[in-house]
């Protein structure tokens, strides 16, 4: 029966999901980000913390969008769990501070009891960070439960064996090239009425989309969807960050990795432009072939000449090939990293990297 339902309804449902996916409003996004930033800076600890850090000695790992589920067909995290657990082992032993940037748990499609039951391995790894006060948990739209349900503190305590707060964001502060500098972190759903905790969206996902995803075997978090030009929501996040002085913004939410305001495809276009200026025929050929793989239909170079490298997105921990991506801030660098299983062994790979002092020189 499930095979017949998939054959009849899978493609139409995917088209509907794409058509009616979230459509953030620019002014609402800008207002929400600005208001949250203001409240954190002014010391509203219910919203978030300001964390001074030393760029030479302190290290941060930022993961988002695990969407831990119930180990069923709709559980996007299940295939990534091995890489995620191995990554947390590495970052714990290396002394990193862990910022979980939201949508850690898929609580639109599952109840908290099922999620707790089926994700003990990853919760236990996260608990190690919390026991050493090296953990901040931020809520997103799919785990908004943590931020507004009266029973959430008790559930958190049962998972992590102690009470601790949940935040909407945090701000890292540092001095880079003798300039005061902020790194503003939040999930990134702010200002989006279709995913910002409104009643209809939660009802639809919990009662219609979740069961359909399971029956029709639909997983929208494919890597191919994340190499394209920036999504609308990422574009709005970038536009907000680009006019904020002395500030980098890091979000999740879109499942689309972004480094220095560019997706993988956009960075390929930057490399192609440089190869063309250098008249490097071999490089041009290789980069064009890679662009065709990523964007096979009518690739059109975007205008990236005025992009300000102020925005980053951690990607997600629920790609359907088992890979996870995140952002590291360590050893005076910021990096986009990927963990993937090679010969069934999880391995860390640095995809992009820049020194923080070099990045600061590129900002207005």
Please report the first level of CATH classification, the CATH class of the largest domain: Alpha Beta
Give me the CATH fold name of the largest domain.
Purple Acid Phosphatase, chain A, domain 2
In spatial order, strands of the major sheet run 4-3-2-9-10-11
> Mind describing the biggest β-sheet?
6 strands, mixed
- Radius of gyration from the CA trace? 20 Å
Number of separate helices: 12
> CATH superfamily membership of the largest domain, which one?
Metallo-dependent phosphatases
H/E element string?
HHEEHEHHEHHEEHHEHHEEEEH
Query: Which residues sit in consecutive blocks of at least 5 with pLDDT less than 50?
Result: none
Structure overview:
This protein has twelve helices and eleven strands. With 364 residues, it is of the alpha/beta class. Strands 4-3-2-9-10-11 form a six-stranded mixed beta sheet. Strands 1-5-6-7-8 form a five-stranded mixed beta sheet. A hairpin with a 2-residue loop joins strand 9 and strand 10. Helix 3 packs parallel to helix 5 and helix 10 runs antiparallel to helix 11. The longest helix has 18 residues. The chain starts with a helix and ends with a helix. The mean pLDDT is 88.
């Amino acid at each position: 029966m499930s095979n017949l339902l998939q054959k009849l309804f899978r493609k139409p449902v995917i088209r509907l999901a794409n058509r009616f996916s979230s459509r953030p409003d620019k002014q609402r996004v800008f207002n929400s980000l600005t208001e949250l930033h203001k409240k954190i800076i002014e010391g509203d600890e219910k919203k978030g913390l300001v964390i001074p850090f030393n760029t030479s000695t302190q290290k941060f790992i930022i993961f988002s969008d695990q969407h831990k589920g119930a180990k069923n067909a709709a559980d996007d995290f299940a295939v990534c769990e091995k890489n995620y657990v191995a990554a947390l082992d590495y970052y714990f032993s290396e002394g990193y501070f862990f910022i979980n940037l939201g949508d850690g748990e898929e609580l639109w499609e599952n109840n908290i009891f099922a999620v707790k039951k089926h994700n003990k391995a990853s919760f236990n790894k996260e608990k190690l960070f919390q026991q050493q006060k090296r953990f901040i948990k931020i809520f997103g739209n799919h785990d908004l439960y943590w931020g507004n349900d009266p029973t959430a503190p008790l559930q958190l305590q049962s998972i992590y064996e102690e009470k601790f707060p949940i935040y909407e964001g945090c701000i890292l502060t540092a001095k880079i090239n003798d300039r005061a500098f902020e790194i503003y972190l939040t999930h990134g759903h702010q200002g989006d009425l279709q995913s910002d905790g409104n009643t209809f969206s939660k009802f639809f996902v919990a009662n219609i989309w979740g069961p359909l995803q399971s029956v029709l075997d639909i997983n929208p978090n494919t890597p191919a969807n994340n190499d394209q030009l920036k999504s609308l929501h990422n574009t709005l996040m970038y536009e907000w960050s680009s006019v904020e002085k002395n500030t980098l913004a890091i979000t999740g939410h879109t499942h689309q990795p972004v480094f220095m305001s560019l997706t993988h495809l956009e960075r390929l276009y930057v490399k192609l432009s440089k190869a063309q200026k250098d008249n490097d025929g071999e490089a041009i050929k290789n980069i064009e072939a890679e662009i065709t793989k990523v964007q096979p239909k009518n690739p059109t170079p975007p205008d990236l000449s005025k992009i300000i490298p102020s925005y980053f997105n951690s990607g997600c921990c629920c790609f359907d090939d088992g890979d996870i991506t995140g952002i590291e801030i360590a050893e005076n660098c910021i990096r986009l990293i990927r963990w993937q299983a090679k010969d069934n062994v999880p391995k860390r790979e640095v995809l992009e990297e820049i020194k923080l002092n070099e990045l600061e020189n590129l900002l207005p």
